[in-house]
Amino acid sequence: MLHHLEINVANLEEAASFWGWFLPELGYEAYQSWPSGRSWKMGATYIVFVQTESDHLFPVYDRRKTGLNHLAFHAEDAQQVDIMRAKLIERGVPILKYTRDMLDDPNHAVIFTGPDGVLIEYLVAKEQQEAHL
Q: What domains can be seen in the chain, in order of their start residue?
């Protein structure tokens, strides 16, 4: 089990605004708050966002380089993916991919970017879909 994940962000207020909406939608609760960071927790696992120090802001995040590529979160079912997609659109978050009708993708997912360009996937995996049949 993952204990915690810590992500440096270019703009803590922007990140806290986005993640402070998104993570509670998935069941995470606000956990810690201090001048340079915020965290949200679910069970024994928590996710931390920390303001990047100004002398380390560049180069900016690029998921194709060594390091974090993307974050993927479980959805309860395909309906939850659809609901989240609608909420993301309502908030003006650009959707990169939506797999509802893509026959070549075994998962049902909505894929988008969060602050700093981090790719985020909210999905119900094929195994989960089969378990609901």
A: 1-52 (3.10.180.10), 70-133 (3.10.180.10)
Torsion angle in degrees (nearest 10) through CA of 55, 40, 44, 127: -100
Sheet order of strands, 37-42 included = 4-9, 45-51, 37-42, 29-34
Residue 26: exposure state from Cβ atoms within 10 A (0-12, 13-18, ≥19): middle
8 A C-beta contact, residue 38 and residue 19: yes
45-51 and 4-9 strand pairing? parallel
102 has a pLDDT exceeding 70: no
Q: Read off the pLDDT band of 100 (50, 70, 90).
A: confident
Phi, psi (rounded to 5 degrees) for 131 = -70, -25
88 and 97 in contact (C-beta within 8 Å)?
A: no
Strand partners, 72: 121
Model pTM score: 0.88
At 81 the three-state DSSP class reads helix
